[in-house]
Amino acid sequence: MNPGNVKLIFYLAVLLADVVSSPVMAESSDDLDRLFTDRKERAQIDAMRRGAYSPGEGSAAGISNVRVDGVMLRSDGSNVVWVNGKSTLEKTNVSGVRVYPDKVNRDSYAAPVVVDGKRKYIKPGQSWSASSGKIKDDY
Q1: Are 13 and 5 in contact (CB under 8 A)?
Q2: In the chain, where does DSSP find H-type helix?
Q3: How far apart are the first and last CA of the chain?
Q4: pLDDT at position 100, please?
Q5: How far is CA 124 from the centre of its chain?
Q6: How far apart are CA 128 and CA 139, in angstroms?
Q7: What is residue 22's predicted lDDT score, i.e. its pLDDT?
Q8: CA angle, 53 as apex, 136 and 118 as ends, to 5°?
Q9: pLDDT in tens, 19-69
Q10: How many angstroms separate the CA atoms of 7 and 20, rounded?
């Protein structure tokens, strides 16, 4: 092996060791994959993904319209309801609205949702508006 190559390999090894031990690499992997949120925001996002997040009073006031887009009744009882364009397939809390897909009325297809702390029965094609407090047909 050429002595020049040995020096080059040595310098590359020293450079690599310096890069690996740099402070950026010493940070935990939890911090690296969450660069744009702080710990509180990240916990809230993770809770929303799991369906375990229930918004506080400030964010519940932000719900101005709840629209039931569709209902799928399954023979095994695990129904699916689409609210504001999102399904309850994986979780029952959708966009800050609590939905009870297992309690859908099989005669009228009305899906029970909790809005402003009150249970409302909204059929597919209907929506509830915060401004009027009433359920109306969208078609």
Answers
A1: no
A2: 3-20, 23-26, 29-32, 39-50, 57-60
A3: 81
A4: 92
A5: 23
A6: 13
A7: 55
A8: 35
A9: 666 555 545 555 555 566 677 777 777 777 776 656 554 444 457 789 999
A10: 20
